[in-house]
What does this fold into?
Amino acid sequence: MIAYCGKIISVFFLGSFELWAAVPVGLAMALSPVIVVLTTSAGGIAGAVAVIFLSDGLRERLFKRYSGNSGHRRTGLIKKIWDRYGAVGLGLLAPLLTGVPLGVGIGMAFGAPAGKLLRWSSVGTILWTIGLTVAGVGGRSGIRYFFG
It folds into this structure.
């Protein structure tokens, strides 16, 4: 039981930083896909909440870095998403492109309302976690099918 709780806590904390790592780790630890989705999503949302509460000091540094003037390819993409779709687009795509905490920090730096950004980041986190988990389970099943 303690080992199982340790696995869940590990996936939760990993999910608060990076969904792309938390889902495969949870599946590799033989956790149920439903538990992986719930734990990873909760971790990602907790990371977003933490960034919103800590955003005052980060706001100016992130705005300077991601305002579109630095010439980085990813920076330009994030700025384009922000200009075209606002908090909704950033919230839905940040879990895929930058990770939830960094995406929320960038949105806060661009002046997005915290409630709207948290709401859409939560939806994006849940959707991407479900998608990654389905892909991981499907990939694992495919490997077992072809390679025994």
In short: The chain has seven helices and no strands.
